[in-house]
Amino acid sequence: MSRLWFPGAFVALILLLALAAPLLGLPDPVRQDIALRLAGPMSGSWLGRDEFGRDVLSRLIWGARTSLSVAFASALTACVIGVALGLIGGWSRGVGSLLSVRSMDIILCFPPVLLALLVVTLLGPGAATLILVLSVLYLPGFARVTYSEVLSVRGRDYVEATRALGAPTWYILLRTVLPNIAGPVLVQLSLAVAAAVVLESGLSFLGLGVVPPAPSWGLMIRGARATMEQAPLLLIWPCAALTLTILAMNLLCDALRDAVDPRTAGR
Asked: Where are the domains of the chain?
């Protein structure tokens, strides 16, 4: 459990900054000041101004709010639906398994970027479209993890004892099976959030995600690429924020995996 403290504290700090963005008294992240275009660090703008004269620090923190909200919303949506499908498929098997889990193979046949292009073409870019795309992309992972875990615990003695007492199926799944498979599902959730942050930034960089002028790390990298020779720091700040966030989340995923794995929990 000691390995959870450092990455957990770092991720909590990032989430706290993102949630507290309206309370920090930052400049308006979309307000332009062409006179200060590409200005370096100065009083009131500790990280300088971007290609439109907007405050970089404000856009970084508000961009974290945007990126993390999209990542968590999509991961939680995929988790809820995927866990429900995995529980139904693993418990009922047969037709239930075919409809709830094997159908996930259809989603896995589509490359992520091509699926994003298809959905954005039909619905248009935006945060809501991005959440829908990411939820669909991460749905098979949760369904498969839950399905395999349900198959491994459905024959255990405590499950059979609950069935022998005449408990209804929904009670067995929610009160007996689900708490005993929560560890792998939690690890899958943390992996999905970390991957969603990267994919959200990549899709926003390509123009398929958050719509300008809303702040986003991917949009900041996209805008800084055109002025990287005049102001290279504009490219460094969002890349550093994205790298540190993903590194902390991956460390947290490793620590969670070790904490819930009985083979490593006693180390």
From this structure: 2-19+73-260
